[in-house]
């Protein structure tokens, strides 16, 4: 059914590509001024002071969000320019660009929400800005009721398409998207809510199917049994599987982290032994880093590994370990130098274990564990682990040299954050689709909910922000694929993507009204799943701190 929008006033600003290009230099100059000003406030003797940065933490995080918005606008304009050249910049894409620019410029001028109760304002950075020219035009006429309404009309005629608007990715990547979207529709979506409600592990049959599809070896080089595909392909696969269920979309994360660790830091023998088994799904890995009293402060962890002949004996406690019970190998971070209290004494191990069963989840000698019950993100389960005399073979010290663990882990952060941003996009897309279907089907006061501007406006902003998060994430993946440093861009993608996923889930639940609060409706699960994205792989506050440090250094 077509939805006529012909009676609406013209919602699109003229010369939009020129307008958006002209709006960037003023905010880029403002960001440079903000960075220089804050650097002066937090520097002591020519260097950024950790104590001063903490004293001015709100301003530092405001700078991170400001920089994330500027990079988002830059990537949106780049996306629009590229698809314009190929003839793919249609009315829908034009509206997404216009609304996104109008809204994000308005928030830069008036305040960027870092969380529900924290707004980053230019005054926090000792700046003010009176937008003029292109920026003022976009703020005044970009995100209007007419633009949002027209976008939703087009979205309603967009059924059957995987994304709202052309993504700008190449044909091969879109074929990968279609393949995994079909798989998720057939095998994941019909079952995900029941897995969540029953708090069940994702069935091994699903894991075996993902292995056959190559999910666990997606970016592992072909010489080690993988597909040798790009990080961009990993992003698309993670998006589509997470759209089905974040637990399924996250199964590949464990393998991605483990493979990256081994590729970057492993010996030739370790690469030859472990990578083919990871790629095929013959072995499933889990990441064992966090401890009860360390959280994001990994440098201070206390789990000890003591040399015992040629091997190592591990003692200590870990927590928030995902999928710990039925995996075969742990990437285990432990302190091998007892004289240290920071990151310098840490080593990474490829610690083998016996997969558990429901009756005996942790059968390996020297290791115990207990489940942590959680709101969402349930398909792999979370565990606390205890190690007491746990044995690790000497040959399984990653790289063969102690003291390199933290450095090895840092090398994986770019890929991990890109992948987490992709998972966030998938969850956000799921929330949009579920919210939109409900808004179309539910009738109130004689018409569908979607006919009410406050409802349709929510859906429009979901679509716009999902595209913004997509372009930021795709840019990070492109940087990684072209061997460019992208820790800053990956951090921004993760920071924004997590907020967008939560906003989409929250707004989609609001559209459901009271039914959204009922466990039987899948939006209740999507909301719970979205909440973790702002916490794991670096909480939003840690992410903002890391971004600020990079900007100021």
TrEMBL record:
Top-level lineage group: Bacteria
Cofactor(s) it depends on: FAD
Claim: DNA-binding is one of the keywords in the record: no
All residue ranges annotated as the Acyl-CoA dehydrogenase/oxidase N-terminal domain in the record: 171-282
Domain Acyl-CoA dehydrogenase/oxidase C-terminal stretches: 403-552
Acyl-CoA oxidase/dehydrogenase middle domain: residues covered: 288-388
Matching SUPFAM superfamilies: Acyl-CoA dehydrogenase C-terminal domain-like, Acyl-CoA dehydrogenase NM domain-like
Family: Belongs to the acyl-CoA dehydrogenase family.
Protein's recorded name: Acyl-CoA dehydrogenase family protein
């Amino acid at each position: 059914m077509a939805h006529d929008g012909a009676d609406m006033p013209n919602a699109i600003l003229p010369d939009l590509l020129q307008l958006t290009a002209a709006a960037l230099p003023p905010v880029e100059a403002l960001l440079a001024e903000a960075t220089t000003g804050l650097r002066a406030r937090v520097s002591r003797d020519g260097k950024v002071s950790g104590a001063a940065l903490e004293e001015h933490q709100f301003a530092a995080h405001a700078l991170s969000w400001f920089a994330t918005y500027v990079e988002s606008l830059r990537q949106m304009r780049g996306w629009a320019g590229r698809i314009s050249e190929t003839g793919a910049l249609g009315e829908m894409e034009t509206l997404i660009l216009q609304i996104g620019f109008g809204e994000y410029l308005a928030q830069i001028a008036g305040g960027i929400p870092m969380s529900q109760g924290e707004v980053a304002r230019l005054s926090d950075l000792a700046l003010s800005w009176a937008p003029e020219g292109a920026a003022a035009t976009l703020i005044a006429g970009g995100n209007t009721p007419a633009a949002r309404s027209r976008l939703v009309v087009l979205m309603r005629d967009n059924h059957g398409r995987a994304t709202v608007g052309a993504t700008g990715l190449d044909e091969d990547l879109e074929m990968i998207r279609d393949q995994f979207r079909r798989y998720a529709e057939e095998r994941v979506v019909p079952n995900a809510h029941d897995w969540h409600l029953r708090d069940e592990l994702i069935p091994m049959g699903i894991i075996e199917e993902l292995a056959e599809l190559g999910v666990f070896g997606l970016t592992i080089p072909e010489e080690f049994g993988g597909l040798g595909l790009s990080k961009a392909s990993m992003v698309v696969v993670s998006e589509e599987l997470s759209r089905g269920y974040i637990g399924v979309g996250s199964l590949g994360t464990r393998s991605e982290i483990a493979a990256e660790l081994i590729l970057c830091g492993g010996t030739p023998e370790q690469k030859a032994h472990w990578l083919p088994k990871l790629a095929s799904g013959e072995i499933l890995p889990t990441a064992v880093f966090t401890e009860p009293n360390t959280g994001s402060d990994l440098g201070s962890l206390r789990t000890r590994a003591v040399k015992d002949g040629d091997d190592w004996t591990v003692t200590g406690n870990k927590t928030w370990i995902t999928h710990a019970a039925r995996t075969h190998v742990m990437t285990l971070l432990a302190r091998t130098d007892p004289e240290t209290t920071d990151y310098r004494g840490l080593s990474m191990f490829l610690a083998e274990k016996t997969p558990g069963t429901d009756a005996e989840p942790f059968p390996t000698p020297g290791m115990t564990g207990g489940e942590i019950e959680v709101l969402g993100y349930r398909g792999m389960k979370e565990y606390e682990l205890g190690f007491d005399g746990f044995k690790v073979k000497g040959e399984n010290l990653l790289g063969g040299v102690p003291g390199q663990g933290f450095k090895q882990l840092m090398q994986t952060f770019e890929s991990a954050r890109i992948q987490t941003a992709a998972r966030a996009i998938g969850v956000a897309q799921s929330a949009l689709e579920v919210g939109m279907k409900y808004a179309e089907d539910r009738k109130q006061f004689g018409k569908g909910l979607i006919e009410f501007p406050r409802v349709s406006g929510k859906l429009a902003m979901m679509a716009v922000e999902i595209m913004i998060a997509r372009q930021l994430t795709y840019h990070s993946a492109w940087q990684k694929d072209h061997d460019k440093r992208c820790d800053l861009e990956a951090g921004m993608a993760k920071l924004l993507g997590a907020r967008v996923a939560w906003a989409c889930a929250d707004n989609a639940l609001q559209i459901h009204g009271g039914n959204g609060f009922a466990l039987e409706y899948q939006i209740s699960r999507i909301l719970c799943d979205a909440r973790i994205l702002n916490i794991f792989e670096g909480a939003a506050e840690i992410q903002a701190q890391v971004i600020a440090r990079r900007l100021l250094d």
